[in-house]
Amino acid sequence: MDNVSDKALHELAEALGEALWGHDRMLAAAESCTGGWVAKICTDLPGSSRWFERGFVTYTNSAKQEMLCVPAETLAAHGAVSAEVAEAMARGALMRSHADLSLAISGIAGPGGAVEGKPVGTVFLAWGVCRDGQPQAHSIRCQFEGDREAVRRQAIAEALRGAIGVAHQW
After folding, report:
1. Calpha distance 47→103 (Å, rounded)
2. Mean pLDDT of 86-104
3. Residue 37 and residue 20: Cα distance in Å, rounded?
4. Contact status, residue 156 vs residue 9, Cβ threshold 8 Å
5. CA nearest to 80, candidates 103, 38, 113, 55
6. What is the distance between the alpha carbons of residues 41 and 154, in angstroms, rounded to a whole number?
7. What ranges make up the beta strands (E) of 12-131?
């Protein structure tokens, strides 16, 4: 799975766009290790402004705090690469946008950056929606293989697949 093609990523973005546009919904992306690649894949598609609202590239902890309201305490307690931070990023993307659905990605793409319990390829993905006016999020932990680009491509593909799943629940 470590060789996700551009074509596959664009097909996933198209499927997400169709699911969102069909329900008059918008997406916001909060990205760390993927550096805005989700936003690029989505906005490569003509007409994506009908369903892609905005993207946040929050590579540093201070950017996560300032742009997405990720609490400093959460970062200190769990680290930037954690379920708690990915979920906070997803909630923050909803709070700081007009989107109905958010996705968040935080991980260790490598080749360095590994810490105990979090080897290179560890990525947390989260998806957020508003329920009863409150942003809520759920996350998963993934362990991807390959070099930096392969890890990032796999993270994007899995994040888009998860967003498609959430969008189809409407």
Report:
1. 20
2. 98
3. 19
4. yes
5. 113
6. 13
7. 27-31, 52-57, 101-107, 122-131
CB count, 10 Å around CB of 62?
12
3-state helix, strand, coil in the chain (%, to 5): 45, 25, 35
Tokens 């909803």 found at: 94
**The pTM is what?**
0.97
- Asked whether 120 and 109 are in contact (CB, 8 A), the reply is yes
* Helix (H) or strand (E) run with residue 7 in it: helix 6-21
The predicted pLDDT at position 1 comes to 52
- Specify the residue for token string 């990915």: 86
pLDDT digits (tens, 9 = 90+) for 120-168: 999 999 999 998 889 999 999 999 999 999 999 999 999 999 999 999 9
Cβ–Cβ < 8 Å for 10, 44: yes
Type of residue at 1? M
